Amino acid sequence: MLQRLAFIAACSLLAFAQEPQPQSPSETQPESKAEPQADPHAHHHHHAAGGDGRDPMAAMQPGPQGGWYASGSSQVPRETPMYMLHASKGAWDFMFSGVFFGVYTNQTGPRGRDKIFAPNWVMPMASRRFGNGLLTFRSMFTLEPVTITHQRYPLLFQTGELAHGTPIINGQHPHDLFMELGVAWQQKLSERVRLNFFAGPRGEPTLGPPAFPHRQSASEIPTAVISHHYQDSTHISSSVVSAGVTAGPVTLEASGFHGREPDEKRWGMEQGAIDSFATRITVTPTTRWAAQFSAGRINNREELHPDQDTFRTTASLGYSRAFTGGHWTSTIVWGRNHNLEFTQQPNTELLTNAQKGGKNFSVVLVPTREPGYIYNSYLAETTLRFRHKNWIWGRAENTDRDNYLLYEEAPFVRLVEEQRYTRVQVYTAGYEREVASHVSWLSAGLGGQIMWFGVPDNLRPIYGEHPVGMQFFLRLRVRAPE
To answer: If you average pLDDT over residues 406-419, what whole number do you get?
Structure first.
């Protein structure tokens, strides 16, 4: 309790004890006509080329008419603000972005919990040109294995992955230390056509929308989406190789990768043979819009079901608009997992461990045929920054869930046959206020949000009629200095 009170008190002092930070005059930049820039500290597509004629943001775009790369090869509209530091040394361009949330959460109902945790990540990049080609070293790291204790934080209706050998139920797992590590090459064929390649031990294959930590429409939301494992969970995959071509506003790409999700050893970087494949088409008709459709087969996706293969299909549409003193960004996503049929061999070791202590029992182990369950998920989210210092946002999710929601976390749940069971809803709304920061390259904000959970009739005896969640947080983000 003292830890929570100290956290809230520190955030309050930061909000009210500091002087307001002066704002730089807003700039106007052209799209097809004069368009105000959203934030003097955010890089946009209007960023001028350097004195030697090279574009310092070239590594963040697949081509002159594409969007910005948000996570891996996924694109957001070009008018989306990109908060980062940039520097050049000789032929090299260096970029650095990152964010940190210090969060207190409390969720009501019989399965609700409270906790202090801290999602975070940093992304260093370096690029340079070789003739008509652009070489980029990409990396991304997080300290969530430390700042999210016990390998989870509370999130009602969320399932997926393991913690201490037990399936996580009503909780979100942390990311691995290594979120991305690879090298990209972009080859210019003409003014409108580029070839793009990526390879690395950790990265994002060409499957899914921009991952939720990197969507500007979710930039101020410290909690994960509960449909993460149906939409963008492959953004941290192993053994990724991708290739694509961008012609004007259209990008067509494909990739191979290792399908197994990272294990619970968050400090390592799992490897494996390429056994899964995906393809994606992205269209950016204007600087304000980006749409993608992708599909892929993910083999042996989960440690809980090592023989289970999944065919995933996703589609998304993103919109971003800058205006004087702020910007508005929105995203809608559909994600679908089709778990393909397979024959499951009972795990004798797990069953024996689960029944230790019993006497004189007899068990007949026979293979079981798992049906091909289909899970659908739908998401809409929007974030508005206005008058420089104010943020408001909303998110709505409607997603299928499995029968794991019927159980508390316990080792025996690993023996449960997974089935599609019900559909749930989560609605989120929040507000944040920018506060003073005496570090020129750091933006700070204090915010809070509330979550309403739509509980179906078959879960109300377990979760209650109307559980809600509340989060209060401090947000720190890297930005361009004044």
So the answer is: 90
